[in-house]
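User: For documentation purposes, I need each entry recorded in a consistent format: the amino acid sequence on its own, followed directly by the corresponding structure tokens. There are two entries in this batch. Please keep commentary to a minimum and don't merge the entries.

Assistant: Recorded as requested. Entry 1:
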Amino acid sequence: MMKKECLNIVESKCRSCKGCALAKTRNNVVFSDGNPETASIVLIGEAPGEMEDLSGTPFVGRAGQLLDEFLVEAGISRQDDLYIINTVKCRPPENRVPFDEEKSACEKFLHAQIDIMNPKAILFCGATALKSFWADPKVQISKIRGNWFNVAINNKEYRAMAIFHPSYLLRNHSMEEGSPRRLMQQDLAEIKRTVLVDNVPFESREFAMV
């Protein structure tokens, strides 16, 4: 069975999910974006915002548009290279950070998406996505972004990197050396080189994640 067909089965179950209170307030389940048959990278964000909830597609608001600009500049195709998902599939009211019980209710869908995709790399876009998988809840994305590490999901290891969420970049406009936007450019260039250009093989080693 093709990846798309497997994901369609998961999506069908996700769209009828009422596992947490977010099901009562959502307009749309926001399942994914990108071509699962060509994507080699899974990008995990936090949760749908207002525009995502209305459209049913992740990262389409102002933050998503900025992400698109950075991806184009880096030579990474949103539709062909990335499979984009969120830790939760329904919008939390007022765009608040998802509660642990909401993330737990969505975890089976999130893990199924990753299992089916079996990506060459996973990108944790923003602190919430990172902390959903990192053992230490006090981890600071600014301290580890730009570095490859291993993540274990359902007893399988993946190469991973944390990048800034574009909503953070909307509040930081500087392009000076060392600024968040310049660091984002550097991180995406490294991702492009390692995964899409040089296709550096993934090496299993002791991982820092759970």
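Entry 2:
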Amino acid sequence: MENPESSQNQELIPYIGEGYLIMNVSSASGALPIKDARVHIKGADIQNRDTEYSLNTNESGRSERIALKAPSRSLSLSPGNPYGFARYTAVVTKDGYYTQTFEGLPVFDGITSIQPVLLVPLAPYNSGDFDPANEQRLNETGSAKQ
């Protein structure tokens, strides 16, 4: 649970800067890029709650680079200052895969952040296409039993 006092202090800091975010979506430990994954980004702070984007990934599994509001870069250069970045929530979906949600993604003024996203395929029994009665079993040589 967020401390209400810290939320009130953060409200005083204007988001006059701009940072950038790219989502890099793949599967198989990063080996397979996922095209047309849906990415939904929403502001998680008081200052950026009106910010919202929906976009898709390209054939390389990357979203376009989007500009997002952030506090001034000078705040992130001061030691001990907890408000040197803006926070965003990102939800990544693709049919046939489990949804990934990222809360509190930091965005810094003047910096392009690349967020790796590993999507896990749904197990066949969750897809509705799996019929255990028709499942082929493999024998010891690796060929299908009839």
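Summary note for entry 2:
The beta strands are 17-27, 32-33, 38-43, 52-56, 66-70, 86-93, 100-107, 112-118.
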